[in-house]
Design a protein that fits this description.
Elements: H1 3-24, E1 30-31, E2 33-35, E3 38-45, E4 49-50, E5 53-57, E6 62-68, E7 77-80, E8 85-88, E9 94-101, E10 105-111, E11 117-123, E12 144-148, H2 161-205, H3 212-215, H4 217-231, H5 233-244, H6 250-270, H7 284-305, H8 310-318, E13 322-327, E14 330-335, E15 344-347, E16 356-362, E17 364-367, H9 369-372, E18 378-380, E19 385-386, E20 391-392, E21 397-403, H10 409-422, H11 426-456, H12 461-476, H13 482-492, H14 494-501, E22 507-508, E23 517-520, E24 542-545, H15 562-570
Parallel strand pairs: 1-5, 3-6, 5-11
Antiparallel strand pairs: 2-3, 3-4, 6-9, 7-8, 7-10, 9-12, 10-11, 13-14, 13-15, 15-21, 16-19, 16-21, 17-18, 17-20, 22-23, 23-24
Helix pairs in contact: 1-11, 2-4, 2-7, 4-5, 4-6, 4-7, 5-6, 6-7, 6-12, 8-10, 11-12, 11-13
């Protein structure tokens, strides 16, 4: 082995060691400041989280300020899956999260697209006894609780509906602006890339005659350069920002691959004498097609995700805005958030029941289809419970408020929907772990390829080694499956599930049971059309059934619902 070869091998080993330290080496964390019994920390959100590691003390409330200094869909949300929190981050604004770290350990958080990550390190405090979060059967482990300042809590305070709607509107407006921007970039990329793609494919693959002007390297460079720097700008910006935070994602890989293809082609166009005749091919169409297609996929994804907040909006639209309360013998109409437990309410025909309550007097048929899925109204009499957001159809009722605010059944349903959106499935955790090593592995393979061709390859060794390393970066883009696809499924899949499942009384539990839906445990099964024929008591225990609706069972003759009685008589 010559001295030059030995130097090349040692340089490759040093580059691999530096690569490993860059991506997997220890990261400097920031400790939260303790003042007034509250820990405070600020995280800047711009292509990543800075700092990425936050150290806090167990058992002491944490006030985490997320200062988002960019727009775009990637960082528009932050998800703390262990705390079951998903909060919107408006562009160029500060959002405050108040967390109660009840358990010691390391808890990851990520953006809504699961592309950038951070870590919350909860250190055990010797003076504070360890408080282990209790585990509820069928639910994910909860590391603590959280409140989002300026938004309605995920638990769903009914009176905070306007705040939730405002947050949804702001997020929707930002997403619409991004859709318009992406559409312009995709159109520009498609218009400029198609002539180059047609010329290359028709000439080299099918052997057709193509105008010589389209095969000119200078013309191809002139067409693809705007695609590289205008169409691909969102990808390059995110990719380089991720690398600046010592992490790598899909955008980083695309950036490296397209820059390699474009840069090599530019060298061939400007100074072809530096390369042998056999390797003077250009890859302008490769860079243009990759950037245009990736941005087209992002546009489709963003448009699809625009409906993920519709489920929450529909649920919030079910609740009543006002309530008729009887106080000191006088009936007055007040906002529903001012109702307290024990208030007497008057429900007139056609009105929504404001809160969960118990009937004091009167008799009426109540439409509970939004909660139970039962199409026929249920007759309610004195002493029986009624559920908030259901509709009083015929008679007048006087009820006493039993549960208000975040304790109502509607609020609990909203909480479960938001917790399910914030949770992650076990298979997704595996995909995240694999994808975290993918980009560094590709770069490492490119370095090894360069070194092997430089040492053992034919002449001109350096040129062929460079071409081979660039080819690794270009080809590896098509082999990127885990995170970019799983994050799309995670964001999009809940939307149709919640929309179609809510009328059928399906309620999501979380990521680990994404295919498992809970239902009120009825005393009897009536039929698939009447799954809740047994008497339904608010707050009844929930059971998990992986298949819904279950196989047909004989209807119960004790059902009070007309449809169930009819089905029972036919059975």
């Amino acid at each position: 082995m010559h001295v030059e070869d030995l130097v090349a091998v040692l340089a490759a080993i040093a580059a691999l060691a530096g690569l490993g330290w860059f991506f997997f080496g220890p990261r400097k964390g920031q400790a939260a400041e303790l003042a007034g019994g509250v820990q405070r920390a600020t995280v800047m959100v711009r292509g990543g989280y800075s700092p990425e590691v936050i150290r806090v003390r167990q058992g002491v409330s944490l006030e985490l300020t997320l200062d988002r200094q960019e727009s775009g869909d990637c960082t528009s949300r932050v998800v703390f899956p262990d705390f079951q929190v998903s909060a919107a981050l408006p562009a160029y604004q500060r959002t405050i999260l108040r967390l109660d770290p009840a358990e010691a350990g390391q808890f990851g958080f990520a953006c809504g697209m699961n592309m950038i990550h951070g870590t919350l390190v909860v250190e055990p405090a010797s003076s504070v006894p360890a408080v282990n979060g209790s585990r509820v059967e069928g639910q994910d482990q909860v590391a603590g609780s959280a409140i989002v300042t300026g938004q309605s809590q995920a638990a769903g305070v009914v009176g905070g509906a306007e705040a939730v709607l405002d947050a949804q509107d702001a997020e929707a407006a930002e997403r619409r602006a991004e859709i318009r921007d992406l559409a312009r970039r995709v159109i520009a990329g498609a218009v400029l890339t198609l002539p180059v793609l047609y010329a290359v494919m028709a000439h080299e693959v099918f052997g057709l005659r193509v105008p010589a002007v389209l095969l000119s390297h200078w013309v191809q460079a002139a067409l693809i350069t705007p695609v590289m720097f205008y169409t691909g700008w969102p990808i390059h910006r995110t990719g380089w920002l991720a690398l600046s935070h010592r992490s790598a994602d899909m955008n980083s890989l695309i950036t490296l691959g397209t820059i390699a293809a474009y840069g090599y082609s530019l060298v061939v166009t400007l100074v072809p004498g530096l390369l042998p005749v056999g390797v003077r091919g250009v890859y302008f169409e490769t860079a243009g097609v990759i950037l245009t297609l990736i941005l087209l996929g992002r546009l489709i994804e963003t448009r699809a995700k625009a409906g993920t907040g519709q489920a929450i909006r529909e649920l919030l639209g079910l609740q009543a805005r006002t309530a008729r309360v009887v106080r000191d013998g006088t009936a007055s109409e007040i906002p529903v958030e001012q109702v307290v437990v024990g208030d007497e309410l008057v429900i007139r025909p056609g009105e929504k029941i404001p809160v969960d309550a118990v009937v004091l007097s009167g008799s009426s048929a109540v439409d509970e289809s939004m909660v139970t899925g039962e199409p026929m109204p249920v007759t309610k009499r004195a002493g029986e419970p009624v559920i908030g957001a259901t509709i009083n159809t015929t008679g007048s009722l006087r009820v006493r408020a039993a549960k208000v605010g975040s304790d109502t059944m509607l609020a609990q349903i909203i909480k479960m929907v938001q917790r399910a959106q914030a949770s992650r499935a076990p298979i997704q955790r595996l995909a995240d772990a694999v994808s975290g090593f993918f980009v560094p592995a590709v770069i490492a393979i490119a370095i090894i390829t360069f070194a092997v061709w430089l040492v053992a390859g034919p002449a001109p060794a350096f040129t062929l080694a460079l071409v081979s390393a660039i080819a690794v970066l270009i080809i590896a883009r098509s082999a990127w499956p885990p995170r970019c696809r799983s994050r799309w499924a995670r964001e999009k899949a809940p939307a149709p599930g919640f929309s179609s499942g809510r009328p059928r009384h399906w309620k999501p539990r979380g990521g680990s049971t994404r295919s498992c839906w809970i239902r009120p445990a009825p005393s009897r099964w009536a039929s698939p059309l009447s799954p809740t024929s047994g008497q339904r008591v608010p707050g009844q225990a929930m059971t998990c059934s992986r298949w819904w609706p279950p196989p047909n069972r004989k209807a119960s003759t004790r059902s009070r619902r007309p449809s169930s009685r009819a089905l029972a008589s036919d059975a």
